[in-house]
Amino acid sequence: FLLDSLLDLEEYSLNYSSGMNSSLEFVLICFPEINSWHISGLLMFFLSVALVSNLTLLLVIAAEPRLHQPMYYFLAMLSFVDVLLCTVATPKVLTILWNEDNTISSAACFTQMFFIHLWSSMESSIFLVMAYDRYVAICQPLHYPTIFTNKLVAKASAFIIIRNLVFSLPLPLLAASLDYCFLRDIPHCFCENMSVETLSCSSYSASSIYSLVVFFVVGGADLLFIIFSYLVVLRVVVVSRSCSAAFKAFRTCSSHLILICFFYITIAITMVSNRAIQQIPRHIHVLLSLLHQLLPPALNPLVYGVMTKEIRQAISRLLGRIKVHPHLGA
């Protein structure tokens, strides 16, 4: 018994001291409580809708010269980020559900963690820039062509990329610097930073504090600015007392507001479920976290396609060209 205990202690010490070595692997615990085929069918449905709708929207914007405007450039950027966001973790999740291959290397885990945070924060920043675009279009319509130039679009794109790279990169680096011991079962389908850090044998308070700071600096600041922009828009519409102005503002902002609600409501639901993890089944929390990566990407292009007249017309013209030249598809 004593010899077995010493051997166990030695193995524990070796695991503790190894830290982040090349052989370190984590185990992703997805949905052992429920039928995996039901979950995989749901995920496949949302993934298919997200990929088809976003790629279609990107094709329409690229093929239609009338949509080569700042508003649609940002929408194309949003669709591109949506494609990347919904494909970061979902393929691995489907592999786990279909083949029960639930191990993931440390390098793959922390890379996945980085890109999940990067694409999510970039989506928030794109909504921020789009809110400013709508503010200028409604509150300063005469100055819109001189403010929203291609140069400004390039600067805004650089801001979105650089800002979120700078804030997202330390998250996986801090997590990778921790020591991980015996317990490597992540109670999730992907490498969510808090779920991974709680497996550490060392203190992860610095990483937790940084995650909280990033959430408020990036997500919180974006949301406050978006709310402020739309409050100014609402004030302008109310002061004008014009039904036509109100209708124009609603037509201009409605699709964007719906997308923002989808995005931030899914974040809020995920956070609430994370805090109330003891009160709700674990698989519900995991599923909500996955849907945050699939539901907004699936709905964003559909909402814009249905509610934006210019995109509907562009799709009709594109389909008309295909019908006029059927031999091109032969």
UniProtKB/TrEMBL annotation:
It comes from the Eukaryota. It is found in: Cell membrane. GO terms for molecular function: G protein-coupled receptor activity; olfactory receptor activity. The chain crosses the membrane at residues 37-60, 72-94, 114-132, 152-175, 209-237, 249-272. Gene3D superfamilies: Rhodopsin 7-helix transmembrane proteins. Residues 53-304 form the G-protein coupled receptors family 1 profile domain. Its main location: membrane. Keywords: Cell membrane, Disulfide bond, G-protein coupled receptor, Glycoprotein, Membrane, Olfaction, Receptor, Sensory transduction, Transducer, Transmembrane, Transmembrane helix. GO terms for cellular component: plasma membrane. InterPro entries: GPCR_Rhodpsn, GPCR_Rhodpsn_7TM, Olfact_rcpt, OR51/52/56-like. PROSITE patterns: G_PROTEIN_RECEP_F1_2. It is a multi-pass membrane protein. This is Olfactory receptor 56A4. The gene is or56a1.L.
